[in-house]
Amino acid sequence: MKSKRVLTAVLDEQDGVSSGRCLSERAFPPCSEMLVHNIDMHYHAGRERPEGTTLDQFIQHARISGRRVVGLTDHLGKYNGDNAEGTSYKPTMEGFGQYRRDMERVQKNFPDLRLFLAPEIGPWGRPRDLCRTLKDLSDFFICEAAFPSHTSISKNTKELVEKIRETREIMELTGKPAYIAHPFRSAINLRLIKYDLEPWVTESNHKGKENFLPEELNKFFLLDIERVGRAAAEMNVPLEVNGNTQFRIRSSNLPAPLQMVWSAFKTLKICGCELVPGSDQHGFTVGVGRIGGAVPADCFDFLGITASDMPLVRRLLMQRGDNIIRTA
Ligand SMILES: [Zn+2]
User: How far is the CA of 280 from the centre of ligand 1 (A)?
Assistant: First the structure.
């Protein structure tokens, strides 16, 4: 309780800043002048906010943590009756509409940020089941894939390629962008988080190694990464470089898995995949104060991808009338 009180005080203090003072000198910059950590396309801030917090506070945190383009999200199950936990908005499509209206209200107070709204659609969400209201209220869509097997590379690959195809279908049905969330999260959960670490994982030591054999990566992530990369590139469906996944990897204390995930993304990039940055932050207060999630900007630096190299982000900004490069 104590930490909650302290946090509320901190947030109240910031509200003075969010009310409009000091904003005029910070115009919204073009992509060409942004850094990767300025772009976070996966920021849970609706019904997944802790009780008693406001969207204004979440956007203020986004702003002071360097974010300028923010994709607000929440799991779709929070609005379609699957998961009624949370109180910010009603657990229905009407609630998602309230989230949208709240976003548009807050956007006016933050002219130096760009806010977008996307539902995070679970693995079982089918494109043709998405209701008209959801499509109308969303700027883009975040799609999760299932990971059906703890042993079979071919089953997991088939599932992910099918999800890429469904995500393409969502793009065609709605005329809006969509991407695949955290393609390596389930494997990381399996290898590092939810079960005992196997000795071969603990003992992996790839100090300084940047390139891995495809078999090494496929074995670790239980996916045929090149096949996934080729499918995503062919169908023009971006994949996400997810901060929460990399946070989980760093939590293991093992350097090798982080090098492997960066190398896996390098394989996807070589295949021609578009990669999108997202922190997947659900809150920014755990115990000691302001601890949230991070956009994995260092991974993008490793990959040689800049804020200008993100077609999904460029498209969303251009639709809002923003310049991608400075024109005057
Ligand atoms: Zn998420």
Answer: 5
The whole domain housing 73 covers 29-186+277-319
Determine the distance separating the centroid of ligand 1 and the alpha carbon of 281, expressed in angstroms: 7
Q: How many domains does the chain have?
A: 1
> Which tens digits make up the pLDDT trace of 286-309?
566 788 899 999 999 999 999 999
What separation in Å is there between the alpha carbon of 224 and the centre of ligand 1?
23
1 in any annotated domain: no
pTM: 0.91
Instruction: Return the C-alpha torsion angle 119, 135, 69, 266, nearest 10.
Output: 70
Distance 189 CA to ligand 1 centre (A): 15
Q: What is the C-alpha to C-alpha distance for residues 212 and 261, in angstroms, rounded to an integer?
A: 10
95 Cα: distance to centroid of ligand 1 (angstroms)? 18
Answer whether residue 15 is part of any domain: no
The answer to whether the CB of 5 falls within 8 A of the CB of 203 is: no
What is the CA(208)–ligand 1 centre distance, in A? 31
Q: How does DSSP classify residue 281?
A: B
